[in-house]
């Protein structure tokens, strides 16, 4: 699994002047009138809000890295544009102006779930709807994504296994560094070994979102209803279960998985791969989220028992 390397970390990163932003947007939406906000929370990209419904997304030069691509995101969103039951931004235009690479797209209604104190049935419903959306996205044929040349990823089960092994290694290193309370009879290394030993052979691979977690899952702040999914710039090809591990709370993953399987069940090979991915998520929660550590260890204990059976 390639490591992140920022290609030009010392490149200047100026905020674009409002008149330039507006001129770029007006190439595609001539009636646009004003820049209303600037958001840098995305890290690799800076977004400019225009009027109430349009976003101009620009790659930040010093954050340029091989796995992030606006062109890749545009390709993905255009593949999804014909799917009315999948709520994602609509691409209005894409282009370059000198060194500036940009995408003009519709603004997703609502706010990121990371910024909303959503709990109980409303949270479960939103995560269930996200799960349904991911299942529909994963139903797309992977061949056009492979043929585009834009999508890195795993081309065999051996590469999927190697990716999971690296994820285990990274999170175990964090556990060793943070030294959380550990209550399981097996060491983290033994947990990883047992999980990987149970990984089935399967050739299922799809175009993944990469991080359909709290920052990219949007909800209505008043009702908590799921409104859509944003930010496909880190997409890659691998097993679909790897799109389901960004939710560290086991209860969240249950709601997500229930939505993912609501319209169609998954087979035993998917279930076993999903258990391995959940083990990674639990170890990550133990390493980084003290409030979730007890629930994650209890969930991990059940996963280990299942992998031993």
List the helices and strands and how they pair.
Layout: H1 18-26, E1 35-39, E2 45-50, E3 54-59, H2 70-80, E4 91-97, E5 100-106, E6 111-112, H3 120-138, H4 143-148, H5 157-178, H6 188-197, E7 206-208, E8 217-219, E9 226-229, E10 236-238, H7 250-260, H8 268-288, H9 293-308
Antiparallel strand pairs: 1-2, 2-3, 3-5, 4-5, 6-8, 7-10, 8-9
Describe the structure.
Strand 2 and strand 3 (54-59) form a beta hairpin. The chain is built from 9 helices and 10 strands. The protein has 2 domains: 18-106, 2-Layer Sandwich (Phosphorylase Kinase, domain 1); 116-308, Aminoglycoside phosphotransferase (APH), C-terminal lobe (Aminoglycoside 3'-phosphotransferase, Chain: A, domain 2, Alpha-Beta Complex). It is of the alpha+beta class. The strands form 3 sheets. Strands 1-2-3-5-4 form a 5-stranded antiparallel sheet. Strands 6-8-9 form a 3-stranded antiparallel sheet, with helices on one face. Strands 7-10 form a two-stranded antiparallel sheet. The longest helix has 22 residues, at 157-178. It has helices spanning 18-26, 70-80, 120-138, 143-148, 157-178, 188-197, 250-260, 268-288, 293-308, and strands at residues 35-39, 45-50, 54-59, 91-97, 100-106, 111-112, 206-208, 217-219, 226-229, 236-238.
């Amino acid at each position: 699994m390639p490591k992140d390397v920022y290609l030009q970390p010392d490149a200047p990163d100026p905020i674009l002047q409002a008149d330039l932003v507006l001129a770029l947007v007006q190439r595609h939406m001539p009636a646009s009138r004003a820049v209303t906000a600037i958001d840098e929370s995305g890290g690799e990209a800076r977004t400019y809000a225009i009027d109430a419904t349009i976003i101009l997304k620009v790659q930040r030069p010093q954050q340029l890295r091989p796995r992030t691509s606006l062109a890749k995101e545009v390709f993905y969103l255009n593949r999804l544009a014909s799917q009315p039951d999948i709520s994602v931004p609509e691409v209005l235009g894409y282009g370059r102006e000198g060194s500036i690479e940009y995408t003009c797209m519709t603004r997703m209604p609502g706010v990121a779930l990371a910024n909303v104190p959503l709990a109980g049935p409303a949270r479960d419903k939103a995560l269930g709807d996200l799960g349904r959306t991911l299942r529909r996205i994963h139903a797309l044929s992977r061949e056009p994504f492979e043929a585009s040349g834009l999508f890195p990823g795993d081309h065999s089960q051996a590469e999927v296994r190697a990716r999971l092994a690296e994820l285990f290694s990274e999170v175990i290193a964090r556990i060793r560094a943070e030294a959380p309370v550990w209550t399981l009879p097996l060491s983290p290394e033994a947990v990883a070994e047992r999980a990987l030993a149970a990984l089935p052979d399967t050739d299922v691979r799809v175009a993944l979102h990469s991080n359909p977690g709290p920052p990219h899952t949007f909800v209505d702040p008043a009702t908590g209803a799921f409104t859509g999914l944003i930010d496909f710039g880190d997409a890659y090809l691998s097993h679909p279960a790897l799109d389901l591990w960004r939710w560290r709370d086991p209860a969240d993953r249950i709601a997500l998985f229930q939505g993912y399987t609501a319209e169609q069940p998954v087979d035993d090979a998917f279930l076993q791969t999903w258990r391995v991915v959940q083990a990674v998520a639990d170890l990550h929660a133990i390493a980084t989220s003290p409030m979730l550590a007890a629930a994650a260890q209890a969930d991990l204990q059940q996963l280990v028992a299942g992998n031993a059976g």
